[in-house]
Each structure stands twice: as structure tokens, then as C-alpha cells.
Design a protein that fits this description.
Length: 350
């Protein structure tokens, strides 16, 4: 086994491995390297493990780790994987990738090396925490059976949303991007969080033109909810989503997830991954209603610090960030939209 850095000619083999691996996620794909570079100018080190016994191997590639570097004034110099961590055939391969990644991080004088949002805890000199879960809904039973399985309250809430004159639109082109971003940027501003720029999402669409869908909930002509999914293999993955709080009594979230589930079935996916939620949060409790299976999501860190923290934990516990979250909603929205992407490059994916 040999650890190598991704070159352009290796991208088809890298992506073929991710698509066929049971542990492969959309965020593991090689196209994110261009998204990171074109949006934020990040340095990247996309590492893969190559099996030298290619005759007997399923694929010459047996593991991938999309790594990039953030030199942040807010959180320090960090080497981190894309959300989803790494994808590997086994723990031995993962250990080799982690060891090489941590060594590269130290050579670059990064203060910490972070395996973000991993679906399993990998071995090695890593501090591991789990404060989030994912919910995976099996939709192979089809629309009729799933509808019967769901609690009657969900169907009642969906009827209420429709009675409130809400409607959903779903598209796999950029047509709904502006409306989605209008909702999402407004929501993050109200929540005290700088949002990434629309250019970031434009780059995602450019790199994955057949690997996403956008859902927007409308009240008449006004977009009030927006959800962005990535598609890969047999699964539809919820990544970003929000509903404007003032419209929650109209039940837009129930309508959104119902339509997402039905669209997932209609496009012959087998699973809906409802995305990351904090453990024991209201968001997690809401997703529990839809009949999915809960699984932990891990943050794993090697650090020069005595008490390593994930980016999410740092932004939630640091008093500076707490003060910032209180001030940010008071910043006029047009100014927040201008400044948000410039600040977001310092704390991506947290």
C-alpha cells in the first residue's frame, strides 16, 4: 500500500472508488477540491491509498482522504477533512491515511488535524467526541407503505401546510438557487451565523451538475423554506436547509420533508439521509418522527493543544463567538450578506 496525493489524472479512479465504496459520501468526491480552491483559495492535500497488488484488489485505490488547510484568524491554523471524514476499506488503510495527514499537518505547522463528521471512529492518536447524529430513512418500501407507516400526526401536519396555501417546488437545475439562498442567508443571519456566499453553491453546482436537488417552500410567491440535497449512489443526502421562523406555524417544515421523501422515492433512491443534528436537540426529535435510524457522527482531532476542540465545539463555547452571535443579527442584512462570506472562510463547515 502506498499513500499518494491526488493528481488530475487520478480523479476518475478516485470518484469511482467513492461511488462503489459502502462508506462513500458525496463530500468524499474529488470535485470538492475545486470548490474549496475556487471559493476560498484553500490549499488542499487530497490523499489516497493505492494497493500495489492491483491484480487481486477490487480497485487500485483502497482509501481516500480529502484534506485542506484553513489559516484562520478566529480558530487558528487547521488541517481538516471535508465533512464525512475519510473513506477507507479497513482500519489499516484509514490509519495509514491519518498518519500521513497528521504528518503533513505538522510539517505545515498546523495547530490541529481534524477528521470532520466521520460516520465511524477511526483508530489512531485522535481525540474523539460525538455530539451529533444522523437520521437515515429507508424508503425502499415505496410511497404507499411509507405513508401508512408514518404517524397520523405527520400526515395531518402536511395537510395543514397545504391548507395554509403552501407549496413545494423541487428542481435539479440552478433555477431555485436564488430563492433557496434568500431563505438560507436570512435564516443564518437571524441565528447569528455568517453564511457562505452564493458563489460557493454555484461552484458546488458546477462541479456536481447531476448530483444535487433544491427544494423551496413558497407562501404564494414568497420563498419561506429552502433545502439543498446532494445525491450519490442510492442515497439522497440533506446538507443545508432552513425555514424562516416567523412562518413555522404554517407547518412548512413538515411539507418540505414530506416532499423530499416522495421525491427521493420517485427518483428511485433507496435512502434519505436527513443530515446532521445535535444529540437530543429539537431538530433531532423532529427527524425521529419520520421513521429513520439514528447513528452517531464523530469529530476526531490530533492537536498540539493539551485539550483539543472541534471547530463546532470551539464556536459554541468560546466567549468571543458567543458575543459575536448576539451581535450579528443586529447587523443590517445587506451588510451581513457582504461580510458573511468573508468571515465564513475562517470557519468553514462548523
Amino acid at each position: 500500500m502506498k499513500i499518494e496525493e491526488l493528481k488530475e489524472q487520478d480523479c476518475p479512479a478516485w470518484d469511482a472508488y467513492v461511488h462503489t465504496s459502502p462508506a462513500g459520501l458525496p463530500q468524499h468526491l474529488s470535485g470538492w477540491r475545486a470548490v474549496l480552491r475556487n471559493t476560498y483559495g484553500y490549499e488542499t492535500k487530497y490523499l489516497f491509498a493505492r494497493c500495489e497488488d492491483v491484480v487481486n484488489a477490487r480497485s487500485p485505490i483502497v482509501g481516500v482522504m480529502p484534506l485542506f488547510f484553513v489559516k484562520s484568524l478566529l480558530t487558528g491554523h487547521t488541517a481538516m477533512t471535508m465533512p464525512g471524514g475519510l473513506c477507507a476499506d479497513n482500519e489499516m488503510v484509514a490509519q495509514a491515511l491519518i498518519t500521513q495527514g497528521w504528518e503533513i499537518a505538522r510539517q505545515a505547522q498546523a495547530q490541529r488535524f481534524v477528521v470532520q463528521d466521520s460516520r465511524q471512529p477511526w483508530p489512531g492518536p485522535l481525540h474523539t467526541t460525538s455530539q451529533h447524529v444522523s437520521w437515515l430513512v429507508d424508503v425502499r418500501m415505496g410511497e404507499a407503505a411509507l405513508s401508512k407507516k408514518l404517524d397520523r400526526n405527520i400526515r395531518r401536519q402536511v395537510r395543514m401546510a397545504r391548507d395554509n396555501q403552501l407549496r413545494a417546488e423541487i428542481d435539479r437545475t440552478p433555477r431555485l438557487l436564488a430563492d433557496f439562498y434568500a431563505v438560507f442567508s436570512r435564516f443564518t443571519h437571524q441565528s447569528g451565523t455568517p453564511v457562505f456566499g452564493c458563489h460557493f453553491l454555484e461552484q458546488v453546482i458546477e462541479q456536481f451538475p447531476h448530483g444535487y436537488n433544491i427544494v423551496v417552500i413558497y407562501k404564494e410567491q414568497q420563498p419561506i423554506g429552502g433545502y439543498f440535497q446532494l445525491e450519490a449512489g442510492k442515497t439522497n443526502y440533506g446538507v443545508w436547509g432552513a425555514t424562516l421562523p416567523e412562518f413555522l406555524p404554517l407547518r412548512p417544515v413538515y411539507l418540505a420533508y414530506w416532499e423530499i421523501l416522495m421525491d427521493t422515492i420517485a427518483h428511485q433512491f433507496e435512502f434519505l439521509d436527513m443530515g446532521r443534528s445535535p444529540v437530543d436537540s429539537n431538530a433531532s426529535a423532529f427527524k425521529r418522527q419520520w421513521g429513520g435510524v439514528c447513528a452517531p457522527i464523530y469529530q476526531q482531532i490530533a492537536s498540539q493543544q493539551a485539550t483539543p476542540q472541534s471547530l463546532t465545539a470551539q464556536t459554541q463555547t468560546d466567549s468571543k463567538f458567543h458575543t459575536f452571535r448576539q451581535i450579528w443579527p443586529k447587523v443590517p442584512f445587506p451588510i451581513a450578506q457582504f461580510l458573511g462570506p468573508k468571515l465564513r472562510r475562517h470557519v468553514p463547515f462548523a
